[in-house]
Amino acid sequence: MSDAMHHPSSQPQDQPPSPAPEAGQQLTPGNEDTVAGWYNAHARRNTLVILVVVAAVAVMLIGGQYMVRKSQQGGLTPAAGGPKPGAPAPDFALQSLDGKTVRLSDFRGKAVLLNFWATWCEPCKLEMPWFIELQKQYGPQGLQVLGVAMDDSGKDTIAKFAHNMGVDYPVLLGKESVSDQYGGLEYLPTSFYIDRDGKVVARVFGLRSRSDIEDWIKQALSRGSSMAQK
């Protein structure tokens, strides 16, 4: 027979992966490579998973900041049909949680923070306490926060949610017709800051910081002929 039949090939062969060490297995002179190799392999996989998660979060944050910048520039597609800064805010008539008919034009002469939200919207829950605080702080200067619930939970569910959140500003029951007037509202929360003459000062998609919200409120309060006459 040839030597090839009597001697193993000199070429490296694929080896099966080392089995995971048993619970409580100790390093011994005979198993150092197996145990250490298994832990090193798992450490590399865990590191890779962490890097993938970090990269995904970074992409989401960068993409979110890009969308925010585009929204401020009026270039975000979902609101293309909605009122842009400087345009009149479309009037509407919606039912409040206490059964009254409320029109946006009822608040002419005041600055309005018009916030579209939903009970299932987690970012909406974060900004609501800020709205409550800012209404108390700037209400005497002419601010009116209006919340418009844009989900199908039903009046009782929305009322319970608003009560549990401590909302003390008017909450209205939204309609698709109003959504269409304001650009389709594909993102929640969506807020429009409206000056005393009923013109849009800013439109904002998604959650923003409390300081940003306060700045837009100040802008809305400072604009409009009603303010100029004071």
Give descriptors for this structure:
single chain, 230 residues, alpha/beta, Glutaredoxin, five-stranded mixed β-sheet, two-stranded antiparallel sheet, disordered N terminus
Structure description:
This protein is an alpha/beta fold and 230 residues long. It has two domains: 16-73; 83-228, Glutaredoxin, CATH 3.40.30.10. The protein has helices spanning 3-6, 32-72, 122-138, 155-165, 176-181, 210-222, 225-228, and strands spanning 93-95, 101-103, 111-117, 143-149, 171-173, 190-194, 200-205. β6 (190-194) and β7 (200-205) form a beta hairpin. It is globular. The model is unreliable at 1-17 and 57-79 (pLDDT under 50).
Q: What series of H and E elements makes up the topology?
A: HHEEEHEHEHEEHH
Separation of termini?
Answer: 111 Å
Helix content: 40-55%
Strand order of the largest sheet: 5-4-3-6-7
Mean pLDDT: 78
CATH H level, superfamily name of the largest domain: Glutaredoxin
| Text of the CATH class of the largest domain | Alpha Beta
CATH topology value of the largest domain: Glutaredoxin
Main sheet overview: 5 strands, mixed
Rg computed from alpha carbons, rounded to a whole number of angstroms: 30 Å
- The class by helix and strand makeup works out as alpha/beta
Count of the separate structural domains: 2
Count of alpha and pi helical runs = 7
| Dominant shape | globular
Chain-wise SSE layout:
Elements lengths: L2 H4 L25 H41 L20 E3 L5 E3 L7 E7 L4 H17 L4 E7 L5 H11 L5 E3 L2 H6 L8 E5 L5 E6 L4 H13 L2 H4 L2
Parallel strand pairs: 3-4, 4-5
Antiparallel strand pairs: 1-2, 3-6, 6-7
Could you write a compact summary of the structure shown?
This protein has 230 residues and is of the alpha/beta class. The protein contains seven helices and seven strands. Strands 5-4-3-6-7 form a five-stranded mixed β-sheet. Strands 1-2 form a two-stranded antiparallel ribbon.
